UniProtKB/TrEMBL annotation:
Keywords: DNA-binding, Nucleus, Transcription, Transcription regulation, Zinc. This is Transcription factor domain-containing protein. It comes from Aspergillus ochraceoroseus. It comes from the Eukaryota. It is found in: Nucleus. One of its GO terms (molecular function) is transcription cis-regulatory region binding. InterPro entries: prtT (IPR051089). One of its GO terms (cellular component) is nucleus. PANTHER family: FINGER DOMAIN PROTEIN, PUTATIVE-RELATED, ZN(II)2CYS6 TRANSCRIPTION FACTOR (EUROFUNG). Its main location: nucleus.
Length: 500
């Protein structure tokens, strides 16, 4: 009491109020601590009950990435609510699950399965958020990165984590993760499962086939990404020096077809095999063509024969897909997109025939006519690829949030056009090139890739000046909106394939 004698009465009153508030806060804190402890105890009991019941019924699902308690999923971390997660999941199921043709879309059809696996659950949130919750996309992506980082130490992540990382890496374009995914897959013995699939003495089990399927899916990613990530400079259009993630891939690929005869086969297995056969052609080209004297003028006969052989192989591949694979396996839900293989077909045609650009420097000397014919073929397929993407309702509608995956082929086609016209426009039939560049610009603008669209438009203008082509004439004939396109004729197989 002596300490407050002589003090201002108002000040004394304030001190008393502060003391009273402090006492109330202490009481509230004690109460909340007790409540929190009760809640924590309840959660631990429920978790123990859930774990024991789940281990009995679905032992392969509950794994939590083998990363310990610090690996709480995106809802448990308080980043979003259960209702928000369900909204993102349902959007993914309706719009995203079958975008990557060689990934097993059956994995995401069971909501309870997805929800129980933190990394899978988060990956789906990241993908869907790109479309419907863009303001939260980076937050979700950062959480996914944290979950992946947590797998760097401790036990090897499980097969579900591998699939989730594949999905996330493909959709976000973060290609540096492929090496890590390949390493984890090998640690899990997925490559061994692929070899066992071809061993007549080994009985096929659901687990073996699932593990082998995952390895072959990684092979598909490796084969396609080795050729398709060319988003920037036209001079890098072929990416000849990009290494494969999987060593000795040919040791595994012949056994992929065993997926089709397994009692545990899935529709995706037909698409996996189709992609492996097709992109093995481009892998062979990558290995053989640089050694054939491509840069010599005139082009050596060995190089000419190789280019012709690879190009014809792609035609036969496409013809076989459209004439022998059952429609339920080669197509997807939408009628208009019944021939989704037209995109990889045109892309591979660009890739193979585009090798002929190695040896063209834009000089005034008359180039080899054989070389020009291959470049023209690549150019025509670049036009067709962009036109197909622009006219597909599904691709165009989803391009904004699939650009890091689907857009890789778009960029490749754009770069081919820019490179070909810069080197040899005076020898090429490039009438449709400006139309294709304009369509590509529209696709990029609609997807929000403003800077990329500006870059393509600048190159468009440069080439128009170079070739003395009026820009307005290309835009007047721009393709109508997708709703005006005749779905029946959009994906017709080129007539020359009928005789293949």
């Amino acid at each position: 009491m002596s300490s407050v004698v002589g003090q201002n009465p108002r000040k004394v009153e304030s001190i008393d109020k502060v003391a009273l508030l402090q006492q109330r806060l202490n009481n509230i804190e004690v109460t909340h601590r007790e409540e929190i402890q009760q809640i924590r105890s309840s959660v631990e009991r429920l978790a123990a009950q859930l774990e024991s019941s789940t281990v009995v019924t679905e032992p392969a699902i509950v794994n939590k990435d083998h990363a310990g308690p610090h690996c709480a999923d995106i809802v448990q971390s308080g980043i979003l609510s259960e209702g928000e997660w369900e909204e993102l999941y349902h959007f993914f199921r309706e719009n995203c699950y079958n975008v990557i043709g060689f990934m097993d879309d059956e994995l995401y059809k069971t909501q309870s399965f997805v929800r129980q696996h933190p990394l899978t659950s988060t990956a789906i949130c990241v993908i869907a958020a790109r479309a419907i919750r863009q303001e939260r996309y980076q937050t979700y992506l950062a959480h996914a990165h944290e979950l992946i980082k947590n797998t760097f130490v401790g036990p090897t992540p499980d097969i579900h984590a591998v699939r989730a990382m594949m999905l996330l890496t493909a959709w976000t374009g973060q290609s540096r993760l492929w090496g890590y995914i390949g390493s984890v897959s090998t640690e899990l013995g997925l490559n061994t499962a692929a070899l066992q699939l071809g061993d007549e003495a080994v009985a096929h089990t659901a687990d073996l086939v699932q593990r082998a399927r995952t390895w072959f899916t990684l092979c598909c990613f490796d084969l396609t990404y080795a050729r398709s990530h060319a988003r920037s400079h036209a001079s890098n259009v072929l990416h000849l020096n990009r290494p494969f993630v999987i060593n000795r891939m040919r040791d595994y690929l012949p056994f992929a077809k065993r997926l089709l005869t397994s009692p545990y086969t899935q529709p995706v297995d037909h698409r996996i095999c189709a992609y492996i056969v097709g992109f093995t052609i481009t892998a062979d080209a990558k290995a053989q063509l640089p050694k054939s004297g491509l840069q010599l003028n005139p082009m050596p006969q060995e190089a000419i024969q190789l280019l012709e052989s690879f190009d014809q192989s792609i035609d036969r591949w496409f013809h076989k897909i459209n004439n022998t694979i059952e429609p339920v396996y080669q197509t997807f839900v939408d009628k208009q997109d019944r021939n989704r293989f037209l995109i990889p077909y045109t892309f591979m045609k660009i890739y193979i025939n585009g090798f002929a650009l190695h040896g063209m420097d834009g000089s005034e000397n008359l180039p080899d006519l054989n070389r020009i014919s291959f470049v023209q073929k690549a150019l025509n397929n670049a036009h067709l690829l962009i036109q197909t993407q622009c006219r597909s309702q599904g691709i165009r509608r989803r391009f904004k949030y699939t650009i890091d995956y689907i857009g890789t082929t778009t960029y490749h086609a754009i770069n081919l056009i820019l490179k070909a016209l810069s080197c040899a426009h005076q020898y090429l039939d490039y009438e449709e090139s400006f139309m294709a560049l304009h369509q590509a610009t529209i696709l990029l603008e609609e997807a929000g890739a403003v800077e990329a669209a500006k870059e393509v438009r600048r190159e468009h203008e440069r080439l128009a000046l170079l070739t003395q082509t009026a820009m307005s004439s290309t835009e007047e004939h721009f393709a109508p909106e997708p709703t005006a396109i005749d779905d029946e004729n959009l994906f017709d197989i080129p007539s020359f394939l009928n005789a293949a």
